[in-house]
């Protein structure tokens, strides 16, 4: 191969690499953005899962059949402490619902399964009362959950090297039969959450 041909080859290879790199970043950005929006087709979201509670009991999607299920995805270490704000609203919403909470299972699922051990989850969720159920699982369980429920696992590295979880910006609503029934924005007020659930419960009892 002549010197001219060698130079041309390396120019082409370098250009191809840059194009592929840009395409890869674009694909990642698109995936993160699209996954942050719940799918509009009900059949596209949901499915079986097998997780563990802070008491280290095995919990599955079947555990909550017959109840409306709220699913919030985050971690004990969230960006801008967003998880705590949402969990406070969920806890207050359960208080507003009163006796109707027997028809609801409110789940807080940690996507930071390596840091959020059973003991850490237990201490963290305790401050929000006894109506919110904390869950997590192994790497494969969390990965499968992310795929089935269209929830991206996004870690944001801080200046001190710590990885914080970017919580999902929606609270998923699953029906008593386990079907996707819509969502609430993660910053929805306690009163609005309670009103939405009360309406769903009333409609299902007709």
Count of DSSP strands: 9
Q: Tell me roughly what share of residues is in helical segments.
A: 40-55%
Order of helices and strands: HEEEHEHEHEEEEH
Question: Which structural class should the secondary elements be placed in?
Answer: alpha/beta
CATH superfamily of the largest domain: Glutaredoxin
Provide the domain count. Answer: 2
Distance between the termini: 80 Å
Biggest sheet strand order reads 5-4-3-8-9
Low-confidence stretches: 3-7, 12-35
Instruction: Indicate the CATH architecture of the largest domain.
Output: 3-Layer(aba) Sandwich
> What spatial form do the alpha-carbon principal axes imply?
globular
Query: What count of helical segments does DSSP give?
Result: 5
Radius of gyration from the alpha-carbon trace, in angstroms:
21 Å
Share of β-strand residues: 15-25%
CATH topology of the largest domain: Glutaredoxin
Q: What is the residue-mean pLDDT, rounded to a whole number?
A: 85
- For the report, how would you describe the main beta sheet? 5 strands, mixed
The level-1 CATH class of the largest domain: Alpha Beta
């Amino acid at each position: 191969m002549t010197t001219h041909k060698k130079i041309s080859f390396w120019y082409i290879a370098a250009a191809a690499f840059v194009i592929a790199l840009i395409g890869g970043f674009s694909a990642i950005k698109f995936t993160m953005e699209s996954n942050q929006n719940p799918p509009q087709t009900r059949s596209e979201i949901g499915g079986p899962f097998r997780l563990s509670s802070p008491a280290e009991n095995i919990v599955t999607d079947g555990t909550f059949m017959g109840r409306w299920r709220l699913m919030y995805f985050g971690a004990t270490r969230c960006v801008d402490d967003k998880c705590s704000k949402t969990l406070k609203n969920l806890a207050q919403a359960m208080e507003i619902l009163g006796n109707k909470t027997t028809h609801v299972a409110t789940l807080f699922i940690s996507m930071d399964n390596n840091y959020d051990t059973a003991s850490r989850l237990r201490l963290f969720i305790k401050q929000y009362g006894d109506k919110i159920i904390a869950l997590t699982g192994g790497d494969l369980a969390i990965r499968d959950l992310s795929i089935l429920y269209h929830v991206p696992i996004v870690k944001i590295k801080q200046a001190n090297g710590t990885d914080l979880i970017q919580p999902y910006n929606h609270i998923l609503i699953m029906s008593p039969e386990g079907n996707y029934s819509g969502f609430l924005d993660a910053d929805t007020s306690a009163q609005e959450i309670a009103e939405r659930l009360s309406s769903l419960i009333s409609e299902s009892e007709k």
